[in-house]
Specification:
This protein folds into four domains: 6-81, DnaJ domain (Helix Hairpins), CATH 1.10.287; 121-163 and 212-262, HSP40/DNAj peptide-binding domain; 280-341, Sandwich (HSP40/DNAj peptide-binding domain); 344-375, no CATH class. Helices cover 25% and strands 28% of the residues. The protein is built from nine helices and 15 strands. A four-stranded mixed sheet has the order 10-11-15-14. A three-stranded mixed sheet has the order 1-9-8, with no helix packed on it. A hairpin with a 2-residue loop joins strand 4 and strand 5 (188-193).
């Protein structure tokens, strides 16, 4: 398979500076490093491809040769990529404060610094779970923003241990507080959960008796929520950091609220437009008429039926529909006209209809002849 252009691999232009190339490689390395994609051969190949491109384009002499001759500049075997200095490359690109002034590859991909700083997140902390909730609205509620108070049960940090689960924290001697141990295989580094601390990175001299070491307790909370106007049935709204509390310094989860909008028997909803069917007599459909309907806010609206309106015709009342959750303004009400044919017709009506039929079969204009018959 033909090699891809190095600039294309990193997503930079041919005039890219060394710093721009480093930033581009940083993004690719974080995305495709095998430690972040275990077992994914495609990611591993993309990582190797990006590393090769980086080493060529950051070497001024090699880059000049590549710009002039392309991949052929390095012969049929291609350039010799040096993976032995991969950790040095990462140290240069990612920076850090580990041993020797840099973070290790392990720290870059599996931690947030080698230690938990003062007031920072403990390595073994677990993030809280996301919570799910459903609320139901009437279609009329969608016309305006709704403010709701949600009553939920969720995990809260234990007051006694401040969510840590115990006291007298001691760093794990096996992993040095990281919660994971690293090992190398070829030029890649891998990590697994520390067998001694189970990934916590530390242990406590004494566990909290109130929460039994969990760091969290269940409690009921009331949460104020604003539901935007125009919300649609089935939409899911996200309230950040309103889910279960994390333990041992972990992040709080989110609360997802699914919205159920009850249908209104008068309308069909199509996005921001509402469709309502009205029934008119065949006489009104022929001669024209004016009818009334009520919208979702119970405002009375007048609808003009033009002469010669056909069954199924759609009439539009602009700006009388629903608001949009994404833009200003409101949709329309579309009035579908159903022309009613009477089942019981009197003798006089039949006589007039026969006369109308005769008029329509003659050459005289239809409306002029109907006017003659109906006076």
């Amino acid at each position: 398979m033909a090699k891809r252009d190095y600039y294309e691999v990193l997503g930079v232009t041919k005039s890219a500076t060394a710093d721009e190339i480093k930033q581009a490689y940083r993004r690719q390395a974080l995305k495709f490093h095998p430690d972040k994609n275990p077992g994914d051969k495609s990611a591993e190949e993309k990582f190797k491809e990006a590393t090769e491109a980086f080493q060529i384009l950051t070497d001024p002499q090699k880059r000049q040769k590549y710009d002039q001759f392309g991949h052929q500049a390095f012969g049929p075997q291609g350039p010799q990529v040096d993976y032995s200095n991969l950790e040095d490359i990462f140290s240069e690109i990612f920076g850090g404060r580990g041993a020797g002034g840099t973070d290790s590859i392990f720290d870059i991909f599996f931690g947030q610094g080698a230690r938990r700083g003062a007031g920072g997140r403990r390595r073994g902390g677990r993030d809280g779970a996301d919570l799910q909730l459903e609320i139901t609205l009437n279609m009329a509620d969608v016309l305006e923003m709704q403010e709701k108070t949600l009553d939920i049960s969720r995990l809260e940090p234990c007051d006694d241990c401040k969510g840590m689960g115990g006291s007298g924290e001691r760093e794990c001697s096996e992993c040095g507080g990281r919660g994971q141990v690293a090992y190398r295989q070829g030029f890649f580094s891998f990590a697994s959960t520390c067998p001694k601390c189970g990934g916590a990175g530390s242990s406590f001299k004494s566990s909290c008796q109130e929460c039994r070491g969990a760091g969290v307790r269940r409690a009921r909370r009331k949460i104020a929520m604003k539901i935007p106007a125009g919300v649609e049935d089935g939409m899911r709204l996200r309230l950040r950091d309103e889910g279960d509390a994390g333990s041992a310094g972990g992040d709080r989860g989110d609360l997802y609220v699914s919205v159920c909008v009850r249908p209104d028997p008068r309308f069909e909803r199509h996005g921001t437009d509402l469709v309502q069917e009205i029934t008119v007599s065949y006489i009104d459909a022929i001669l024209g008429a004016e009818v009334e309907l009520t919208d979702l806010s119970n405002e009375i609206l007048s609808v003009k039926i033009p002469p010669a309106t056909q069954h199924g015709a759609m009439l539009r009342l602009r700006g009388k529909g629903l608001p949009s959750i994404e833009r200003s303004g409101r949709g329309d009400i579309l009035v579908r006209v159903a022309v009613e044919i009477p089942k019981n017709v009197s003798g006089r009506e039949k006589q007039l209809l026969h006369e109308i039929a005769e008029i329509r079969s003659s050459n005289k204009g239809f409306f002029g002849k109907v006017k003659d018959v109906l006076g």
